[in-house]
Amino acid sequence: MLKESYKVIGVMSGTSLDGVDLAHIHFTVNHQKWSYKILESETVPYTEDWLNKLRTAVDFSQKELKQLNRDYTSLLGHTIKDFISRNKINKLDAVCSHGHTILHQPQNGLTLQIGNLKEIAEIVNQTVVCDFRVQDVKLGGQGAPLVPIGDRILFADYDYCLNLGGFSNISFEQDGKRIAFDISPVNTVLNFYANQLGLPYDDKGEIARSGETDIALLEELDNLSYYQKPYPKSLGFEFVKTIVLPLIKSYDLTVEDKMHTFIKHIAKQTAYALPERKGKMLVTGGGAYNTFLLECMQNYLTDMTIIVPDTKTLEYKEALIFGLLGVLKLRKEVNVLSSVTGANKDHSSGKIYRP
Predict the structure, then answer these.
(1) Among 28, 78, 96, 202, whose Cα sits 20 to 30 Å from the Cα of 118?
(2) CA–CA distance from 103 to each of 6, 111, 336 (Å)?
(3) CB count, 10 Å around CB of 179?
(4) Which helix (DSSP H) or strand (DSSP E) does residue 125 occupy?
């Protein structure tokens, strides 16, 4: 008999590098209908040293990556252990952890999320379900996005689920299949420019709002070949580093104008990505706090109702859904959809480590 109630900790570290998201979640399932409650939640920021390592790891050698993986597994394990201890959490079914993406080149059969070594289970002294992407790439998939099955199970009331993190991704139902893909970079680019002004991010998009659109740059961004590709498709930081930032840099503009133009680009590509520009769209992730970005999106999507949920769901939706992916793996149920990733079959992905 499968259980009807699970208590897990979902753990996520995204490409925007704002820290490790931890959410203690209670899932219940009744006649295949799932519901959730986020109990304690927290984002633990990275130290400056770790930020530098994670920003530059894309250029590390194999030997350096192995060491980084060991060090990050230790960091993540102790961060989770501390969260459990401070919140006096007990009787957990599992810790379900995404790790942190360093390399994502599915076209080369390669994706690397650090922090998923078996030692993590010993550090936290819990069952750990992790490393959800590798199996999908082996099955010919993109290894991303993985969140859409959670959108289907937990957020079926919305026509679209849009997440605005380091990159934006969208998910929706079409002809009985869940479709999802990465749309464009978001905070990977916006935070890069905010950092140049000595800020961690652009609060509510006010800096970007003060700039102006550069039509030539906007046009060049919109014409990047990624946007013409059919889904399934996904983005990694390599795209930002080798294509997007050098392109923006080639324009002699103020930081404000660069950010303003890039926000217009995000909004435009979001509208183009939708098969129908009407209905209800749930917006989550750090970018949902960017008022200027949401206004620009609404200008392109005049018939769409854009809904930003409660703070815990907004900030911890990815940690929540990786919690669900872990539970589905424990139940030996499908947690990755081939219609989304392009793999040759739906499957139950992830590794289970026990202390």
Answers:
(1) 28
(2) 32, 5, 20
(3) 17
(4) none
Nearest residue to 342 (alpha-carbon basis) of 146, 88, 206, 102: 146
**Strand-pair category, 167-174 with 128-130:** unpaired
CA distance 113 to 332: 22
Tens digits of residue pLDDT in 280-298: 999 999 999 999 999 999 9
AA identity, residue 78: H
Structure tokens at 35: 């519901």
Return d(Cα 21, Cα 39) in angstroms, integer. 13
Q: Which residues does residue 36 pair with via DSSP β-bridges, in sequence order?
A: 27
38, 312 contact by CB (below 8 A): yes
Q: Can you give the length of the chain in residues? A: 355
How would DSSP label each residue in 160-225?
A: EEEEESSEEEEEEEETTEEEEEEEEE-HHHHHHHHHHTT-SS-GGGHHHHTS---HHHHHHHHT-G
pLDDT tier for residue 349 given thresholds of 50, 70 and 90:
very high
Q: How far apart are CA 40 and CA 44, in angstroms?
A: 13
